[in-house]
Amino acid sequence: MKKILIVDDQADIRRLISLTLGRKYVLLEAGDGASAISMVEASRPDAVILDLMMPGGLDGFDVLTKIKSDESTRTICVVMLTAKGQASDIDSAIIKGADAYLIKPFSPLQLTRILQEHIGG
User: Total structural domains in the chain?
Assistant: First the structure.
């Protein structure tokens, strides 16, 4: 079964995503950027669903840059899932290597479709 890391500081969002994807994927969760990077390095998920705005020193752009700049993790699918919907945020995420960008509130079906396109399942 494919593995997905859900990175969001809001437990309710992580729970909603888990309910949406839990039957098709093995799910891991992180509530901040530093934990996300540690989990990516330790568990090598097939995909990361990543919020932009998180507490602590690392935001979603930092985590995305780290994942996509490391040769051992750059092929991991990263789906940005955030409330930030400005064109500059979307463009920046795509330039940094995001595979998809969804704006909250989001469609669970759209998220499922994106993951199926990128990693199967």
Answer: 1
